[in-house]
């Protein structure tokens, strides 16, 4: 709403520009300015202090004001406002001219406020115009309505929920292990508003579910990652940025053009250069909890004493981070350094970076790639980083033929690049070509003599078509390319050869290991067992990588046991998202077993619509959880989880 404007002012006999010079001049100059003295008239708001009555010719009349009492003077005698006791000026004012700048400042403030009001009004009109264009785009594309279509990834176990303030006094069954005192987080997509047009599971606004655990107590909280994107859309009460779900066919071009128009008209502010959702993963480094998304810089999250979550703002590492920050950084458990990569905004290249234990971002290394590929994860060893150049490509031109912006190209070669951890340029990288595939998540990596070993979740390809959610095809994860399974790659530096082998035929994803073994030889990994029909995870499988997997290449004894794996089932119609391994010790002690720890996950019961947190013994994988925390609300399926110890929470910056 526009503010009311102050009454206009008029100065007669003396111009507005001349007043400061006249008032600030000598007594003689003021007295001689007119044969009959100065004659000034000024129309002002009655609530505003006025100095002009002291210059009027009428003698013996007191002009009183809320702030100032000045005795009127005649033309024959000028009374100095400083030395004359009959004249009382406001406290802190020693001369009449000293009040002039305050008038000007107030005038400027009013003028600036008026400009802001006008600008906001113009932006609101521009927003309405863009909304009209948006409606036309969707109605033209669908031929009937612009309303959001039914979508599998907005219903049932994927249906969004609302924020929840910290809830205490939760029922706990069993005993929470002491090593799990801290907070367990799970972030995922949760759209704040119903969107027009298409929707992809990747589109939802980032929402964090947090569970703080202590001795006999648990506190649960649900908060959005308050990104710049979310805050802007909340002001309008509707989505305004383009969505992945709309990036199919010619409609995608119009959606991109519409966002560019909104930016140019000031409807959207992208001064940071990004518009991510913070919905993908979390990491804790240098006393800061960060929410991550491929298209953006990290958002810093603060955990309050009562368990609540507050978004502090973008983390740009003292303005040294000028590009996106991918969703899976790696933290070396020995050096405390963090390694990550991001996308170059103006080319197909990747940008590899390292961050010191103290949070200092080091210089970038540009990794040149022939095409723009979608790389979600990478891995590190003690001395190397393993980057991937895989055939999931960005294909905006393909939308002209009705295609999706992300396309798996089976004709493009798949490569693994081994780069020294502290490389200075990409001439130091060594590429190994592997059979065509896609690797969404890596599991572990380490060095053995002349070889680099990579364990990962591999599939023959991947299809991210947003139509799956609308048509409810319910095909296997990865569609016709099959489901991801556990694979091993051995890259030999000496002869340049690379060998791959499948370690299991079980459909798995979202792996986790003991964090103390990142970059080191790893024996155990835990992965979610994927129910291909529902695209949900029905259990957790534990793999022993030291054992020969050959006896389990064809079957995994009714999916419960095998030569190198054991499965924990959540129960009928119970499904989880990401699971995290929490070690039972604080380091790699010689007498500490690698699998000595616990697994924690949020599990959703489709029979009751309720959710709970379960804690499993990672060593025994026994069928009965060590502890269960009953939660007050449903937790929809999301993306990645993270655990922060109580000690880390207390050290937050």
Report on this model:
The protein is of the alpha+beta class and about 650 residues long. The protein has 2 domains: about 90 residues, no CATH class; about 450 residues, YVTN repeat-like/Quinoprotein amine dehydrogenase (Methylamine Dehydrogenase, Chain H), CATH 2.130.10.10. About 15% of the residues lie in helices and about 30% in strands. It contains 8 helices and 35 strands. Strands 4, 30, 31, 32, 33 and 34 form a 6-stranded antiparallel sheet that branches. Strands 3-7-6-5-35 form a 5-stranded antiparallel sheet. The chain has a 4-stranded antiparallel sheet with strand order 8-9-10-11, with no helix packed on it. The radius of gyration is 33 Å and the shape is globular. The N terminus is likely disordered. It comes from Physcomitrium patens (Spreading-leaved earth moss). Its cofactor is Fe(2+). It catalyses: all-trans-zeaxanthin + 2 O2 = 4,9-dimethyldodeca-2,4,6,8,10-pentaenedial + 2 (3R)-hydroxy-beta-ionone. Its EC number is 1.14.99.n4. Pfam families: RPE65 (PF03055).
Q: What is the first-to-last residue Cα distance?
A: 39 Å
Q: Can you tell me the CATH class of the largest domain?
A: Mainly Beta
Number of helices: 8
Residue windows where pLDDT falls under 50 for at least 5 positions: 1-79, 473-478, 551-562
Strand percent estimate: 25-35%
CATH architecture of the largest domain: 7 Propeller
The total number of structural domains is 2
Give a topology summary.
Blueprint: H1 19-23, H2 27-31, E1 62-64, E2 69-71, H3 100-142, E3 164-167, E4 172-174, E5 182-189, E6 206-214, E7 217-224, H4 228-236, H5 251-264, E8 281-285, E9 288-292, E10 299-303, E11 309-314, E12 330-331, E13 338-343, E14 350-355, E15 365-367, E16 379-380, E17 384-389, E18 392-394, E19 406-408, E20 414-420, E21 430-434, E22 438-448, E23 451-459, H6 467-471, E24 485-492, E25 498-502, E26 508-512, E27 524-531, E28 536-544, H7 557-560, E29 565-569, E30 574-576, E31 580-583, E32 597-605, E33 610-617, E34 627-630, E35 641-645, H8 646-650
Antiparallel strand pairs: 1-2, 3-7, 4-34, 5-6, 5-35, 6-7, 8-9, 9-10, 10-11, 12-13, 13-14, 14-15, 16-17, 17-20, 18-19, 20-21, 22-23, 23-24, 24-25, 26-27, 27-28, 28-29, 30-32, 31-32, 32-33, 33-34
Helix pairs in contact: 3-5
């Amino acid at each position: 709403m526009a503010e009311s404007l102050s009454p206009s002012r008029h100065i007669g006999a003396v111009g507005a520009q001349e007043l400061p010079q006249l008032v600030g001049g000598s007594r003689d100059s003021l007295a001689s300015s007119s044969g009959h003295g100065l004659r000034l008239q000024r129309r002002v708001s009655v609530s505003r202090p006025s100095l002009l009555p002291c210059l009027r010719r009428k003698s013996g009349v007191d002009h009183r004001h809320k702030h100032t009492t000045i005795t009127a003077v005649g033309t024959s005698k000028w009374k100095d406002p400083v030395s004359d006791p009959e004249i009382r000026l406001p406290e802190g004012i020693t001369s009449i001219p000293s009040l002039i700048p305050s008038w000007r400042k107030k005038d400027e403030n009013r003028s600036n406020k008026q400009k802001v009001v006008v600008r906001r009004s113009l932006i609101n009109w521009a927003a309405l115009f863009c909304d009209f264009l948006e409606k036309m785009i969707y109605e033209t594309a669908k031929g009937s309505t612009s309303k959001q279509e039914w979508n599998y990834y907005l219903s049932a176990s994927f249906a969004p929920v609302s924020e929840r303030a910290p809830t205490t006094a939760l029922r706990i069954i069993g005993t929470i292990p002491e090593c799990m005192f801290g907070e367990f987080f799970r972030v995922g997509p949760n759209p704040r508003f119903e969107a027009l047009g298409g929707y992809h599971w990747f589109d939802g606004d980032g929402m964090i579910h947090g569970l703080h655990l202590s001795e006999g107590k648990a506190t649960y909280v649900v908060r959005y990652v308050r990104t710049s994107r979310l805050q802007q859309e909340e002001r309008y009460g509707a989505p305004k940025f383009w969505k992945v779900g709309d990036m199919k066919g010619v409609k995608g071009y119009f959606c991109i053009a519409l966002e560019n128009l909104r930016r140019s008209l000031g409807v959207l502010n992208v001064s940071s250069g990004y518009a991510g959702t913070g919905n993908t993963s979390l990491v804790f480094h240098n006393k800061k909890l960060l929410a991550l998304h491929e298209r953006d810089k990290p958002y810093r999250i603060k955990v309050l004493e009562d368990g609540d979550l507050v978004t502090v703002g973008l983390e740009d590492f003292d303005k040294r981070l000028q590009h996106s920050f991918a969703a899976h950084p790696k933290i070396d458990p020995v050096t405390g350094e963090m390694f990550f990569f991001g996308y170059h905004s103006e080319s197909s290249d990747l940008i590899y970076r390292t961050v010191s234990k103290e949070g200092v971002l080091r210089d970038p290394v540009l990794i040149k790639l022939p095409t723009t590929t979608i790389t979600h994860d990478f891995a590190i060893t003690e001395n190397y980083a393993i980057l991937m150049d895989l055939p999931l490509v960005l294909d905006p031109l393909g939308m002209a033929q009705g295609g999706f912006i992300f396309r798996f190209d089976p004709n493009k070669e798949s490569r693994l690049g081994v780069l020294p951890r502290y490389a200075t340029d990409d001439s130091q990288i060594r590429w190994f070509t592997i059979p065509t595939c896609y690797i969404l998540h890596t599991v572990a990596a380490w060095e053995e003599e002349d070889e680099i070993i990579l364990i990962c979740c591999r599939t023959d390809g991947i299809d991210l078509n947003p139509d799956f959610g609308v048509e409810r095809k319910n095909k296997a994860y990865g569609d016709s390319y099959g489901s991801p399974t556990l694979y091993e790659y051995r890259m030999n530096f000496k002869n340049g050869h690379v060998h791959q082998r499948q370690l299991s035929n079980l459909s798995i994803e979202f792996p986790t290991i003991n964090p103390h073994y990142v970059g080191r030889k790893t024996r155990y990994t835990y992965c979610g067992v994927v129910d291909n029909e529902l695209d949900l995870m029905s259990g957790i499988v534990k793999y022993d990588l030291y054992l020969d997997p050959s006896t389990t290449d064809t079957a995994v004894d009714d999916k419960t046991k095998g030569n190198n794996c054991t499965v924990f089932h959540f129960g009928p119609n119970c499904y989880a998202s990401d699971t995290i391994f929490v070690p039972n010790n604080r380091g790699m002690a010689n007498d500490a077993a690698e699998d000595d720890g616990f697994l924690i996950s949020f599990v959703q019961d489709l029979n009751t619509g309720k959710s709970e947190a379960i804690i499993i013994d990672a060593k025994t994988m026994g069928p009965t959880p060590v502890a269960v925390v009953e939660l007050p609300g449903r937790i929809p399926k999301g993306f990645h989880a993270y655990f922060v110890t109580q000690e880390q929470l207390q050290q937050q910056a």
